[in-house]
Write a structure and sequence with these properties.
The chain has 235 residues and is of the alpha+beta class. It has two domains: 148 residues, no CATH class; 76 residues, ACT domain (Alpha-Beta Plaits), CATH 3.30.70. 60% of the residues lie in helices and 16% in strands. The chain has nine helices and six strands.
Length: 235
């Protein structure tokens, strides 16, 4: 006999497929997906509140459908549809990754967040509420709190990948020599035509590694001060 005072029976009811569990899981998907999406939206990312909510709801509904098929039809693989969600979310994540004209890649964290939101939705959809809520809090922690730590580590790194525009091709050899004089090694040099300019200037992407203690801004300042350099940007 069902008792409102028994928490165990409520949990059992929430893990089965019924109107109560369906509404609970879909509402929890909106809540958890929305929490992650709001954080991304506040930072102006491509995939924000609505995108994360829809991804989480879709993943939840997929696993709910799979569980319904098993519970009421007696056949099916409980992991099959969930696996397709994990594979299929790649097309949406790829759409948030942008490679700019200066070879700068943006959107990787947002794409990873969408994939994590999809996995969170799968946990909600199957009724694994404890893991879903814990994952929601941890994803939020990674996107917000660890963002500051990531920025600090990058700022203190002695290795910088740069996009540099030069006046002529000859300026590149002068740049490499100047960097060597400043105890900075140049590697992974790739020279391309500067598509952002109408003149004969060239552009290059490269990896700079300082052999002495310098932070990121110091390396950028040294690179910007070299004769023939028209533009410098970290990528």
């Amino acid at each position: 006999m069902f008792s409102l005072q028994d928490p165990g029976q409520w949990l059992t009811l929430a893990r089965e497929v019924n109107w109560f569990s369906i509404l609970l899981r879909l509402c929890l998907a909106i809540l958890c997906g929305g929490i992650i999406g709001i954080e991304r939206g506040r930072k102006g990312r491509t995939a924000g509140f609505r995108t994360h909510v829809l991804v989480c709801i879709g993943s939840t509904l997929t696993v709910l459908t799979n569980q319904y098929m098993i519970q009421f039809f007696g056949n099916g693989d409980p992991a099959r549809l969930g696996a397709q969600v994990i594979n299929g979310i790649g097309f949406l994540g790829a759409g948030t990754i942008i490679v700019t004209g200066r070879h700068k890649v943006k959107g990787l964290t947002t794409a990873a967040g969408l994939w994590a939101s999809a996995c969170m939705g799968l946990a909600i959809g199957i009724g694994f509420y404890e893991a879903a809520i814990a994952a929601c809090l941890l994803i939020l922690f990674v996107n917000s709190a660890l963002h500051r730590m990531d920025s600090y580590v990058v700022a203190k790194s002695k290795v910088v990948e740069l996009y540099v525009e030069f006046g002529t091709v000859e300026d590149i050899s002068g740049f490499i020599g100047r960097m060597r004089d400043k105890d900075i090694r140049v590697s992974e040099l790739e020279v391309t035509k500067n598509t952002n300019s109408v003149d004969s200037s060239v552009a290059a992407t490269m990896l700079l590694r300082s052999t002495v203690k310098r932070d990121r801004m110091e390396i950028l300042a040294v690179a910007s001060d070299v004769k023939g350099v028209k533009f410098v940007e970290a990528i």
